[in-house]
Amino acid sequence: MGELDRRHALALFGAAGAAALLVNLPGRADAAASAPDPVAATYLRVLLRHTRWAEQQFDAKAGIYPARDFTFAVVLGNAVLLTRDGYDPETAGVDRETLKAHTLATIRHFAASNLLTGGTEWGRKLFFDTTFQSYFLLAARLLWTDLDAATRANVERITTEQAAYTTALGDQDDPTSGSWTPNGLKGGYVGDTKLEEMGVYAQSLAPALAWAPADPRAQAWRDAFGTWSRNEAGLPAADLANPRLVDGRPVSANTATNLYDTFLVENHGSFGPHYQEELWRTSGRNAMHFLAAGTPLPEVLTAQPNGELLWRTMLLMTSDAGEPLMPMVADREHLYGRDVIPLAFRAQVLGDRYAAYAEAQLAGRLEPYQAYAPADRITKFSGEPKYEPEARAELAISYLLHEWRAKQGRVTPVTKQEFDAHAAGVADFGTGPGLLAHRSPAAWAGTVTKPGFVKFAWQPNHDDWLFVLGGANPALLPATNIAVRERHATTYERVRDGFDATVGVLRFDTGYAAFATLPTGAAVYASTGVTDGEGVLNVYNLAMPGVPGLDGDRAYTSAEGTVTVEAQAAPTGARTDDVTFAPVTARHVRMLGVTPDPQYGYSLWAFEVRDGTGPDLARAGTATASSATAGKEAKYANDGDPATRWAVSTSDRPRADSWLAVDLGTARVFDRARLSWEAAAGRKYRLETSPDGVTWTAVATYPVPALRSTGGRLDVDGRAGIVVDSPNPLTVTGDRVTLSDGPAAPLLAELYPAPAGAKPSGRAATTAPAVRASVTDGFLVLVNLSGTAATGTADLRQSRPEKTLYRGEQVLTATGTTYTVGLAPAEGRVEPPRFTVRGPAGLKAVVRDASRVDLTAPGPLPSVVTVTPEGGRPRPVVLPPRRTVPVVFGEVRPYPLADLALGARAFPAEPLPPGMSSPAAAVDDDPATAWRPGPGGRLVVDLGAAAAVSAVELAWTPGRVPAATVETSTDGVTYTTAGTAGRGRTSTVKLTGPARYVAVRTDWRGGDASLTRLSGWT
């Protein structure tokens, strides 16, 4: 493409209906005043303040922002600020002309030093140079008229020759990118789904297609870009026959497949919804080039195969900050600046109102987050140095997307209530991913079984700054490296059961634990006592004004009173502990670990021992340790040098009982120790002394609990409430809650997304020793914590005259009901209230489903009872003595429903073939919705697992019923014809053998009936 002057750019922007991104409008004093909406105004303010960090990186001697960690990518944020109105030098910490000079010098330098222009410093390499190259090229285009001719030529050469290089690779690996590979066009394998890698190939091509569409090589670039982009998200087997054309190619021609068909993306050995954002992260980068150049967007950016299924999965995990909760990612939490662009792309380019809500929530956190130490940065707490310039660039792109959208018409976010209702749901992602997830309007919860991340995660009100969920941080279970020997997962779905809930029951070498989640946001944790110190919840405690709950302390209320724990001054794990104790005389002293830092174990800058204010006795001693990393041996903990340290070996990082000991040379008197920790600060440890280095006596424990309670309840800062049944006390130590602080012992805890107050335990006594029962928020939770079937009864105490009835058999008593329990090995169940009944003690009730209960009077006289279905009207019933009377409420949906297809995933997935409406309408249990097949339409329903389906029933709306053939498959690839459906509005096709996939092929023509229901029956 030839020189693109500002006038030409404006013409292109007008042609595309885009915002005049390259214009620097003069005359306004406030940077936010020129922003098209409040979220965009926030982005400008954050960019301005972030410029302080960017300028601190400037290498005055070299006269550029450095290549280290791709810091030079800050030029994109600079370019946006320099070409927008209202630049504020006081906020930015640098005057506009200086910033411009730094920016132009950096662009000039790195345009010349790129490998594609004859330089030797950077570029061409797909991972990760092309990501930052994309930012760099966009910055150059925004400042095009300020660049000299040589730099422009270099920018154009980088743009086109990168595309030529990538295209020449075909589907092979980039030899300069080391082990990074997209795995060709096949998609992922165990450990890596490859969405991110395919996206990198695509994004290396986008700038050339946007800025040089007339290049003779552009068609080859376009083909390669489309191929990589269409395959990014992979395909489930059931979608292989989707004929929809995207950029002229059918979805069915895609070759990448998902290893797991539950749409949870795996990246480099960990599963985390964060990685699902990569589809829209790269799309945001790519789209901005096309929009800025005035070049039409490729269709694949707005019709992404399987993109909506990925988005649904991310919605299920969304926190109150708009980004996904990440229980299985060690280093990607709270990278707020980096998480903006995927939401901005979905909201501003795709017009997604739910994404617009999420984006607004994340934007609302940016400024208080940015103000927190280390101030000005927008990726903190975790991650890599290159994330900071990357986040600046992507925040700038997100701002530009808002400017473009303003010309099309703003996207109005949904309300919080609409978002929570839409995002609610449950999903068992399977044994491989190891995640059973539930998002209710009031909480997020998950049973995590992936090795190294094992936990029962719970986040009331989706508050991602309440409990620490990420990586190796324990949740309820005291450690994440505990081996799971069996996993039993049960899901309840609203469409099938009338409510959403999950139960995960896990077997460990030392016992069983279970976690049940309820539609109210409450959860129940039950355990046989798998280890000491069970029921762990680590709490975020920071001074980050503007983020709910982070006001610098946390209040904990128990039966014994309230204590307040102030936030640690340091933003991360580094700290200094001054531990005092009664004077002792000993030759040896040691730190014996109890709980390590979840990521890095134990590491000490210094270990000092004193008697009062006397000298450091350890300085002249000899230090030894349980293990050490090379160059960080034990001797460096007592050498007096604050720059050296001891650290456990890498292999011992997960080990709890690592130690560091000092031999003082002779018996000495001392009463205190100072431990100066690196970021790998021991969460809990003991100080022990010994006369001989063999027999040790504990003299102090760190930390000392701020709260120790035997009252059985705890309110966490007014944001969560817990009711505990355990022989051990619950403690609050620092920012760590332990619900059963003592030896391994049976534990049952009810967790509420609001203060529990004086709420009594809902635990119910059972005659089956292995069964734990609880009535929580009205739901009956039953778990069998054993490997054998369990039978017996549960005593459900109820004080009201009307007794609540649950599915199954129960008998009314003077104090409640006696419920009959029968559970398979390691089975968990959640039973919602189905009826209430007012009647005499001895009345037997067998609840069949939500619409029918069989009642038997105790006799010898007739009984008059009142029966009320949940959410329905009461009905008086006369019961003859000792006779069973079925009571049926025909107006009530008879949950749980036996239809195997209800709520199942239906294909084709979006984008849909022309004329076809969403196939999900055929399995949503809503008679007001229907699937319109479109010409020759075909539907596939994935039952989730092979089942013995005996019949498929089809129900159509009024009109000509099209001919329909039913097919079945166990793998989603090879189908067998089961039969042809009748032409009536309802017809049944008999099946033989197991089936996971059920397909309906039609000869639908315009005006024909639509399929309102597909049902599968055993």
Taking the alpha carbons of the first and last residues, their distance comes to: 63 Å
* Oligomer state of the chains in this structure: single chain
Any low-confidence stretches, pLDDT <50, length ≥5?
A: 1-30
Q: Given the C-alpha coordinates, what overall shape results?
A: flat
Largest sheet: 10 strands, antiparallel
Proportion of strand residues: 25-35%
Strands ordered across the widest β-sheet: 37-32-31-30-33-36-35-39-40-43
Describe this structure in words.
The chain is α+β, with helices and mostly antiparallel strands and about 1000 residues long. About 20% of the residues lie in helices and about 30% in strands. The chain has 17 helices and 51 strands. The chain has a 10-stranded antiparallel beta sheet, with no helix packed on it. A 9-stranded antiparallel beta sheet has the order 10-11-12-13-29-26-25-15-16. A hairpin with a 2-residue loop joins strand 31 and strand 32. Helix 2 runs parallel beside helix 14. The two termini are about 65 Å apart. The N terminus is likely disordered.
